[in-house]
Amino acid sequence: MPRLNEFQQTFCLSLASNLASNQKVTVTGSDARAAAAKAEALISSKLTVLLNDLLAVLNPLSGTQWAIDWGPGVYVVPPATAATDDQYELTATNVEIVFKDGSGQTDSYVVSIAGTNGASDFDVLVENLATTRVMSWRYGQPGEASVKVSSGTTASLEILIDQINVNGQSLASYFAAKTEKNATVTFTGHSLGGALAPALALAMCNQDSPIDSSLPAKVRDLGWTARHYPTAAPDIGNQAYAAFLSETFPPAKVDEPITNFSSTLQQWNQKLWNPLDVVPQVWSEQFIAVISTIYGSDLATPDYVNCIVTRALSAIRDLNGGSNPFWPLDPDRNGQFQRMPYIAPSGCDDCTGDEHSLPDGLCDFVSEMLAQHGSAYISYFGIPQAIATLIPLPPTCPAAEALYDDDLMGCRSRSTGNSTKLGGV
């Protein structure tokens, strides 16, 4: 079997930060912040074991010696409600990890940013769905203050930059201590992590970054290469943000393409995405309309989903001067995969109880959406089963139930069991 190439390795390390997904820990105490700190330590400890199990499989398949060099850094949002009997059940909100290849060939670092943890309400409702309002970029920018990102992205970056530390050391101070020349630092993530990884790279590495001058200085003076490798990322900023990101990290294809491996995936600083994946096609006007017919005649988009998108777009326009500020990071589809096969929905047999009476077709749609957002990428990258089995994928039925129970944008009353095309786009 051929060794996994550097793009496959990066993708595996990207997914590694999601191993904490859906893990919950029970901690005791009356202080919410102290309880969150206890949970962070417990989750970090458990995650370290899972990460080392993954690396024990990845390294022999890659001919590398990837190891955790910083982290895993875990943030748990302090609970807003009082504990029951002084017990809190908590889960990770954000995770970031630095891996280093210890094979001695090059000084290569990978910064892995976790995607959405479906078990974290803050993660889902704030970091993912707080897209209706854009805010000014806070981390250095050229010219006028025109660069804007979603409020959810702003909250996430504050956590990744300011809240997460490992033994008192932030990510920025960790890199500030490095002195080697010609190092390579790759920021990577999938889904929400795919949006945050380039944003974090931009915040830390642009020449006007206020976080720590040492990292942009290393890029400039020590010959470091900083780059990003995002997959399945939603669009999170305006046109000025997209331009700033592209100017700082110009998309780059490899000089010597790897044979028998998709040329689309052999690009740094390029959003990579599956055309049958819903997530990378929100929230820009150019792409979001496709959600109403994304699976064509194979599977109709339910009213509930169409209603969420329609009302979200209306809210975006209302709060941003009557127009949608979100701009696609890949308007020319340079990082779009070859269309993947339609995956027959599965896992919906148990979603029929009275407690969770879902509209017709919603579970099937969620099943397909999750498959195209997760397992389709694993397949497209050619990730071996020995690694794929270690990556957690969200279960269909609970995901569909949670989507409906949350009554996003007040759309449950609009769900009739029929499916119609998206209106108002």
Please describe what this structure looks like:
There is one protein chain. The strands form 4 sheets. Strands 2-4-5-8-9 form a 5-stranded mixed sheet, with helices on both faces. It has a two-stranded antiparallel ribbon with strand order 1-3. Strands 6-7 form a two-stranded antiparallel sheet. With 425 residues, it is α+β, with helices and mostly antiparallel strands. Helix content is 36%, strand content 14%. Helix 11 packs across helix 14 (396-405).
Order of helix and strand elements from N to C terminus: HEHEEEEHEEHHEHHEHEEHHHHHH
How would a crystallographer describe the biggest sheet?
5 strands, mixed
Count of extended strands: 11
Tell the overall outline: globular
Distance between the termini: 47 Å
Determine the strand fraction and express it as a percent band. Answer: 5-15%
Runs in which pLDDT lies below 50 for 5 or more consecutive residues are 416-425
Mean pLDDT: 88
